[in-house]
Amino acid sequence: MHMMSANGIAIHLSDTGEQDRTTLVFSNSLGTDFRIWDRVVPGLSRTFRIVRYDKRGHGLSEAPASPYDMADHVGDLEAVLDGLGIEKAIVAGLSVGGMIAQGLAAKRPDLVRALILMDTAARIGSVELWNERIDAVRGGGIEAIADGVLQRWFPARFAGTRPAERAGWRAMLTRTPVEGYIGTMMALRDTDLTDQTATLTVPTLAICGADDAATPPELVRATAGLIPGARYVEVPNAGHLPCIDQSEAVVQAMSSFFKEHGFV
Length: 264
Known about the structure:
By secondary structure, this protein is of the alpha/beta class. It has one domain (2-260): Rossmann fold (3-Layer(aba) Sandwich), CATH 3.40.50. Helix content is 41%, strand content 18%. It contains eleven helices and eight strands. It has helices at 70-83, 96-107, 127-140, 146-153, 156-161, 163-174, 178-189, 194-197, 217-224, 242-245, 247-260, and strands at 2-6, 9-16, 23-27, 49-53, 89-94, 112-118, 204-209, 231-235. Strand 1 (2-6) and strand 2 (9-16) form a beta hairpin. The longest helix is centred in the N-terminal third of the chain and has 14 residues, at 70-83. The protein is globular and about 50 Å long. The mean pLDDT is 97.
């Protein structure tokens, strides 16, 4: 276990690989911890120093009282990188993790070498949608929305062919601290990065599962369109978490992008 005090809270992280390599940092989605990247990391670990962390309110990181805003999440990642002495990194983020990546690139362009924006957007959902989900979790816990979340995470065939694994991901979701889940939903509700993201100029790869109902392909493609030169890749037979369901395709897309831009 590797814990760090960052931005006033305790953050759980993993830091592997030679420290003189280019750093690739992963930021996870709502209701998950950094284990969602377990199938992606092996295909990249020979080339990069890899940093993964549980964002505030998730996994083993501290869950301060809500509300949170996106600046809290961005500040956490900024503090992690500064604390590790990392001067520049490729930042990969999924869903809210992708918003954190966009926010960091806008706030600290000196820290960001490139972006991998996976199943994310500059704006996700509406105020009304997030308020409904916040009320549901306050009333019945994460269990009250878990089945709907899993349907967005994975295509229907996943439940039929990998039921034990689906049960494990459901357990990860429902064991997320309620305060962390609600706080992060509040951050999502209150964040629109459209103007900030339109100012970014770093090399960017946007990836989206073709069957993603949470951040559908047209939304991810539109966000990629805000960044000059960004590449968009759609992953067939994947929902909101292609790093789990179609990890080989994700590694292939990332590796191609890295070669194109001379990172490997």
